[in-house]
């Protein structure tokens, strides 16, 4: 809050969602926004309904896809995706 006192987390989340909703609406169909979540912390059902149309990446499994989206490159061919996911799995072990 502006005066430095902690605010209610729900108020802060609601305000952030309102800003995002306006931004996403102005950008039209996501406008370059993506959403990433950690599979051990939440599920796709936990994504707020207004954010569900965005391209969504489940981490760490879909990290190669997220990195490609952030670079602006097209998705990797299926044969490459499996290799990248295997390498990522070994790196994270």
TrEMBL record:
Membrane topology: Single-pass type I membrane protein
Main location: membrane
Keyword Flavoprotein: no
Keywords carried by this UniProt record: Glycoprotein, Membrane, Receptor, Signal, Transmembrane, Transmembrane helix
Stored InterPro entries: IL-17_rcpt-like, SEFIR_dom
GO annotation, cellular component aspect: membrane
Domain SEFIR: 8-70
UniProt keyword Cytoplasm, yes or no: no
Any one GO MF annotation of this record: interleukin-17 receptor activity
Compartment(s): Membrane
Pfam families: SEFIR
Annotated protein name in UniProt: I17RC protein
Provenance organism: Nyctibius bracteatus (Rufous potoo)
Gene: Il17rc
